[in-house]
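Q: Sequence in, structure out?
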Amino acid sequence: MKDPVLIIDDEFELRKLLLKLLSLEGYTALGAETGTQGLNILLNEEISVVITDVKLPDINGVDLINKIKELNQLCEVIVLTAFGTIEDGVRAIKAGAFDYITKGDDDNKIISLVKRAVEKVHLKKRIQHLEKGFSEKFNFDVITGNSQKIKEAKDLASKIAMTDAPVLLLGQTGTGKELFAQAIHYSGSRKNKTFVAVNCSAIAKDLLESEMFGYIAGAFTGAVKNKKGLFEEANSGTLFLDEIGELDLSLQAKFLRVLETNDFIKPGDTKPTKVNVRIIAATNKNLEEEIDKGNFRLDLFYRISVMKIEIPSLKERKEDLEELTEFFVEQLSKKLKKNIKSTSKGFLERIRQYNFPGNIRELRNVIERAIIISKGNILSENTLPKEFFEEGISSQDDSANLAEVEKNHILKILKSTDGNKTKAAEILGIGLTTLYRKLQSYGIY
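A: Exactly. Output:
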């Protein structure tokens, strides 16, 4: 049987005719004489479409539409009007009706209208299912770990999620800042709106302005048509600005204006474009130090850091290593279509001893590599990279210069990709331009 359809009409013969017609078309057809009876049916049945007279003995048809929508937002309403009362149909559509039809119209027109209304209900259900899937995929439950530091970060983030306050996520590369940003968005009031993520270091400086703000056709050579920027794409939703510490000073002023006024002027335009965007920013830099060096604006820092969340490094939450390892083994085994059932004691011991300067991203990559080269269904220590067996790897000096540790890690990843800088930047979770800049500072490129 097809979707349930409810007919509400006090004319017995018409109601009987419509019930028979819809039943012959395969729909589950139910009838009610009054609005009150119809609402009672809606309380107990999952109705897809309601066909109702605009004038009922106990309630006005337009008022009935509002009550139906309160009970079932997905339900579509088709209004029956008397001949020559188009105004009633127009009022009904303004109140949220799918369409209206004049009593006496041919049967095919009614069936066609019901079919289209049912199709719209199915579409809304699919969208609702997808939105629910996104919320479940990106909520805080998918952030694995029970260490005190990660629980504190998740607890603070979940409290912030229901507000529109700007958030600054702080932490080393690979700690899962984008995962936190997604969880904040999909747990908040904007969860059904767009989440747009941009890596501020991954786009060339001379292109970033047009990517963020768009432009009007003719604004410059090559601008042959209007382009929407990422601020517009994220309108009513969330814009995640990853690696905001890499943002050029000239663009920082323009970002600040958008955050203060909720509008901006596109290149080539003469009037402002209004936007309503929640900002979540992230950085692995110490922005206070960057401010002292003159690399970051103090006023922008205050704007983006209304709420700050420190995402702990993997080294700070080593008690989560085993749980994270199990999670990635299960997830990546399915992805790679490998039947990996467990890990050996030696594998886990090496994992526990390693410091993971690349944090969770590095752990994930290590496990993916191990699954790919594994010949059995148990991951053994011989599937781990050679650096896991280097002497002293587990007792790296905590007082070591952070820049030196970062340099060694970048060079190690670059070596593992056979010098492929694009792949190395992807594994490190940084923009290609950032990688080139760091290699230049090491005197390598």
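Residues 393-400 have pLDDT under 50 and may be disordered.
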